[in-house]
């Protein structure tokens, strides 16, 4: 291995990429993270971190910083977007005791900042403006070539380059699947907010073909909202589908609370919602996928970032298991990572779609959903145990293999 | 009132008409029941009598006879028509204690025979071949004219002439609503049956767009089956929709038990399933509707006959309340009957439709239904209290009015 060879090159400096950098450095690897943009950072508003992710961030020594800027909600509530009122709730107050770490909501950019500073402290090499065009695995390492002529070489390369990952083409020719839903977002100072839900809760107001999520950020100084709806114009094949006028029309049918909350949403940006179907293979030789590049999912379980964090942690564990190994050892680590992460994330992808259908169901399905929620106590955690429970991320499995 | 004037003429000699004859005679009325066919009797197979009906049949002194020829099932079970296995159940064993009378399944013709004999014993006048063409309310009574030239005169007339009631045209110009579902039936001697569910249960095997109901009849000497499916050919507008070949194709996708049960169904007759929307008025002067003529419903709650029996009983109570009254008294009795029966039967009609949708739901609604059923204990009767509970038929309300 030459002095110029990193042990791991990570393509993509989002939540998944930076966490992978941190987790791999902890395993004693020399790691470099490449970000396409001129600087690290992220557009976006709020992010939800469930205990399956906060447990890992705690292990990475970041939880105190995160708690300082985040909010620990009391409950996740499903509200009836049409009639108002609560349909059901999940109690979060005993999550530290129950799952070893709290449920936290925070600003995405705050999390990015914390991860970036931690990478800098830990000695992760960081490159910006590194727009990767191709990868070449020659059996001894991977050359990662950028548009500006730079080439980075690693013993292995992991692509955490998001929903529209270029690296994914090595594994699948699938296309991102448009759901016909579009999101509008807004995180605004609390003093601009005239209408909010209980500030101790994360609330998802759900109705046929639409929903509105609301929760506080930054110690309650900001209020985060996401409005999502199924576009009729998309179904009709119109190019300007999901525009603000269509949003206004759809949300006009909602209960007063939801109706009067939507004016705070930013109207200049819209996010069409995509996912992909699970694929069985993310690893070939010394190259692997991670995060949305591997398993982009709909947002209904709020697990996109959480699963990327789980990926990073499990990959770190796999590298630790094969510590000191080069060549085949790195390949074995990637395969061990893939073996536990593929089924886990496929389940999350499937369940996120189903959960979205449950949120948006109409007709008799809506009656049945409301009945299920009415009968489920807030302290009944059976349905989230597989997702939030300890030892579900697969890191233990690869360490004990 | 002339010697030729009955106090009540009932048009239609089915379950509703005969029970009305009996209930009205108990109120001391002179009653005549007109049947269009050459003899009283009914095609058809099994019938389910819930306690809201058997309580009334008990009051009419018929329950011992009914128990002799009927079967008292232990449970109503919903099975998964596609995967097999139970989705949920309702315990019926404490219904006498809980609701004052048992749940009974029996042959429709056995019930007709019992009602007919009871009418004969009680002195109800019975006419066959009486095909009614028109009614004339002259303010003092109603002339009921038949195709063969006979005219019967009553102080009042009640039409229990079924789904395709001619009399209903006095109240509504609505048409029967085809659901696109079709039923095939069969009640065969038990020794021909190679495949049956637990003989102590009424079992409805439910799946997307289809179901199969199975239960024993005549002390377990016969086995009754009804297979129902949503016809794709109906949706395509084909005239021969819902034919046996289509049934075979649909049920070929079911679990082994359901698949192997369907060959016993009679293939020569099919019953397209209809209902109508509730209407607010069934009574005009001295003329009223009753049973399916007033509120035809889908069969999913097995309440068609039960609601006709409730109608009859409540009308009897209303006539008793206005005992000795003629003229306006009869009109008041009919109005009192209408006032309590219209909302009750509208709820049953609506709920029957919804229950059918629940049986046949697919996709995420099916997941939710299965979850609701899994969580509902067999001894949880909260959802049937409004239907089976004492005092729900409205007779008490008209008596105490």
Give your account of this protein's structure.
- The structure is a homodimer of 401-residue chains.
- Chain A has 401 residues and is an alpha/beta fold.
- Chain A has 13 helices and 17 strands.
- Chain A has a domain at 7-71 and 108-175 and 277-357 and 391-400: FAD/NAD(P)-binding domain (3-Layer(bba) Sandwich).
- In chain A, the strands form 3 sheets. In chain A, strands 1, 2, 7, 8, 9, 10, 16 and 17 form an 8-stranded mixed β-sheet that branches. In chain A, strands 5-4-12-13-14-11-15 form a 7-stranded mixed β-sheet, sandwiched between helices. In chain A, strands 3-6 form a two-stranded antiparallel sheet.
- In chain A, strand 1, helix 1 (15-26) and strand 2 form a beta-alpha-beta unit.
- In chain A, helix 1 (15-26) packs parallel to helix 5 (108-122), helix 1 (15-26) packs parallel to helix 9 (304-321) and helix 2 packs across helix 9 (304-321).
- The two termini of chain A are 27 Å apart.
- The A-B interface holds A 354, 357-358, 361, 363-365, 367-369, 371-372, 375 and B 354, 357-358, 361, 363-365, 367-369, 371-372, 375.
């Amino acid at each position: 291995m030459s002095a110029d060879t990193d042990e791991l090159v990570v393509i993509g400096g989002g939540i998944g990429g930076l966490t992978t950098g941190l987790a791999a450095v902890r395993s004693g690897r020399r790691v470099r993270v490449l970000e396409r943009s001129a600087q690290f950072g992220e557009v976006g508003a709020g992010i939800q971190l469930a205990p399956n992710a906060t447990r890992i961030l705690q292990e990475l020594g970041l939880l105190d910083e995160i708690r300082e800027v985040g909010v620990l909600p009391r409950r996740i509530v499903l509200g009836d977007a049409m009639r108002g009122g609560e349909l059901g709730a999940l109690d979060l107050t005993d999550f530290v005791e129950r799952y070893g770490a709290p449920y936290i909501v925070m600003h995405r950019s705050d999390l990015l900042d914390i991860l970036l500073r931690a990478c800098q402290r830990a000695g992760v090499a960081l490159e910006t403006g590194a727009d990767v065009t191709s990868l070449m695995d020659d059996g001894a390492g991977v050359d990662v070539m950028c548009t500006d002529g730079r080439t980075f070489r690693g013993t292995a390369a992991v692509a955490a380059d998001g929903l529209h990952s270029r690296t994914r083409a090595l594994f699948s020719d699938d296309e991102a699947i448009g759901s016909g839903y579009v999101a509008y977002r807004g995180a605004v100072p609390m003093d601009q907010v005239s209408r909010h839900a209980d500030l101790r809760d994360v609330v998802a107001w759900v109705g046929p073909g639409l929903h509105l999520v609301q929760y506080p950020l930054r110690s309650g100084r900001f209020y985060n909202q996401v409005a999502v709806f199924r576009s009729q114009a998309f179904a009709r094949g119109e190019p300007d589908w999901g525009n603000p006028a269509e949003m206004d029309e759809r949300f006009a049918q909602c209960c007063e609370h939801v109706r009067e909350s939507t004016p705070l949403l930013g109207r200049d940006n819209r996010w069409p919602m995509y996912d992909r179907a699970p694929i069985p293979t993310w690893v070939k030789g010394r190259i692997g996928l991670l995060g949305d590049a591997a398993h982009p999912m709909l947002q209904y379980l709020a697990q996109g970032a959480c699963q990327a964090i789980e990926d990073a942690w499990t990959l770190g564990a796999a590298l630790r298991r094969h510590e000191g190994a080069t060549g085949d050892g790195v390949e074995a680590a990637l395969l061990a990572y893939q073996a536990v992460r593929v089924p886990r994330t496929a389940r999350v992808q499937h369940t996120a779609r189903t959960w979205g259908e449950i949120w948006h169901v109409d007709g008799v399905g809506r009656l049945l959903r409301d009945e299920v929620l009415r009968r489920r106590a807030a302290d009944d955690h059976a349905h989230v145990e597989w997702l939030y429970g300890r030892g579900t991320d697969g890191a233990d499995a690869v360490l004990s293999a």
